[in-house]
């Protein structure tokens, strides 16, 4: 590349990207013609491309988890194709394997469900990786799964649990329309497949995992959540809520603690937010109220305006 004009000696040179020329601003001499632009390709095809701050390379990176071996390609219809007079040849897409199409569909659906659940990207990526690994297992027979939503729900349950964004079976049932017991069976099948190498036992879902989210959704004060956590722990140790699901225990504790902190919420409000039926919330609250003095013995009476 020239650094000075051979006609006038000026170093004020500029590239004309439209014409592909290197021009001297001092005398107007065209020093080089038909330059090859070796800068990266961008997806903004306008004259002021290079002044834009949001330049992006064309296309997205290839996700190896889809099983695709190359970028997608569109080619023109073969010359042997029968065409009537006046028809214009239409491009068609190179055929992709059934595995790639199946994984892309699964990835898209999992991302949509994660948006609905309002979980972070970590959960979505974990779920996608889990789906891809299951699809690679011959014994799991993912391609023969008749109810895909059941598989998606089970994967999301495991992903949320392992990433610390726990969701209950009932919440996933409401979202996917799949019975919670069927989701549980699928979770067991996935766990037995040993897709990920777990260090230690499988994480257990605890009532404490739901407290912060439920309190936030009910717009309860911070003190309510702080008090609710030790109450859940005490109730569990005392055996007051045996046989109840973790999210149901959390719902019942929040109901009585909210009243204790002068931030009472109705049973219907708690039921709607927690996906626990009103009757179950009442049952848990009734069991807790029998030992209310012991549960709140070490908790100072806090009133929230």
UniProtKB/TrEMBL annotation:
<dbReference type="GO" id="GO:0017025">
    <property type="term" value="F:TBP-class protein binding"/>
</dbReference>
<dbReference type="Pfam" id="PF00382">
    <property type="entry name" value="TFIIB"/>
</dbReference>
<keyword id="KW-0805">Transcription regulation</keyword>
<comment type="similarity">
    <text>Belongs to the TFIIB family.</text>
</comment>
<dbReference type="GO" id="GO:0097550">
    <property type="term" value="C:transcription preinitiation complex"/>
</dbReference>
<dbReference type="InterPro" id="IPR013150">
    <property type="entry name" value="TFIIB_cyclin"/>
</dbReference>
<dbReference type="InterPro" id="IPR036915">
    <property type="entry name" value="Cyclin-like_sf"/>
</dbReference>
<keyword id="KW-0396">Initiation factor</keyword>
<keyword id="KW-0862">Zinc</keyword>
<dbReference type="InterPro" id="IPR000812">
    <property type="entry name" value="TFIIB"/>
</dbReference>
<dbReference type="GO" id="GO:0003743">
    <property type="term" value="F:translation initiation factor activity"/>
</dbReference>
<dbReference type="InterPro" id="IPR013137">
    <property type="entry name" value="Znf_TFIIB"/>
</dbReference>
<keyword id="KW-0479">Metal-binding</keyword>
<keyword id="KW-0863">Zinc-finger</keyword>
<dbReference type="Pfam" id="PF08271">
    <property type="entry name" value="Zn_Ribbon_TF"/>
</dbReference>
<dbReference type="GO" id="GO:0008270">
    <property type="term" value="F:zinc ion binding"/>
</dbReference>
<feature type="domain" description="TFIIB-type">
    <location>
        <begin position="1"/>
        <end position="32"/>
    </location>
</feature>
<dbReference type="GO" id="GO:0070897">
    <property type="term" value="P:transcription preinitiation complex assembly"/>
</dbReference>
<dbReference type="GO" id="GO:0005634">
    <property type="term" value="C:nucleus"/>
</dbReference>
<dbReference type="InterPro" id="IPR013763">
    <property type="entry name" value="Cyclin-like_dom"/>
</dbReference>
<protein>
    <recommendedName>
        <fullName>General transcription factor TFIIB</fullName>
    </recommendedName>
</protein>
<keyword id="KW-0677">Repeat</keyword>
<keyword id="KW-0648">Protein biosynthesis</keyword>
<keyword id="KW-0804">Transcription</keyword>
């Amino acid at each position: 590349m020239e650094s000075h004009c051979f006609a006038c000696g000026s170093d004020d040179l500029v590239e004309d990207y439209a014409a592909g020329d290197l021009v001297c601003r001092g005398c107007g001499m065209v020093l080089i013609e038909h330059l090859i632009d070796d800068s990266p390709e961008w997806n903004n095809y306008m004259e002021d491309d290079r002044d834009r701050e949001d330049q992006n390379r064309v296309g997205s990176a290839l996700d190896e988890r889809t099983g695709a071996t190359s970028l997608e390609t569109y080619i023109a219809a073969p010359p042997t194709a029968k065409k009537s007079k006046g028809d214009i040849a239409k491009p068609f897409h190179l055929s992709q394997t059934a595995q790639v199409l199946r994984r892309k569909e699964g990835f898209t659906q999992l991302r949509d469900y994660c948006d609905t659940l309002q979980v972070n990207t970590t959960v979505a990526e974990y779920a996608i990786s889990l789906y891809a690994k299951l699809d690679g297992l011959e014994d799991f027979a993912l391609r023969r799964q008749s109810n895909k939503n059941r598989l998606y729900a089970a994967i999301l349950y495991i992903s949320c649990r392992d990433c610390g964004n726990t969701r209950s079976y009932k919440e996933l049932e409401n979202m996917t329309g799949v019975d919670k017991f069927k989701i549980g069976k699928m979770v067991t099948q996935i766990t037995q497949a040993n897709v990920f190498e777990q260090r230690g036992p499988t994480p257990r879902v605890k009532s404490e995992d739901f407290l912060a989210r439920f309190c936030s959704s009910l717009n309860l004060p911070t003190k309510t959540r702080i008090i609710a956590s030790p109450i859940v722990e005490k109730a569990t140790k005392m055996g007051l809520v045996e046989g109840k699901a973790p999210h149901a225990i959390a719902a019942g504790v929040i109901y009585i603690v909210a009243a204790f902190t002068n931030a009472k919420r109705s049973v219907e409000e708690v039921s709607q937010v927690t996906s626990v039926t009103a009757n179950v919330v009442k049952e848990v609250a009734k069991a807790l109220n029998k030992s209310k003095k012991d549960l709140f013995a070490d908790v100072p009476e806090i009133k929230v305006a």
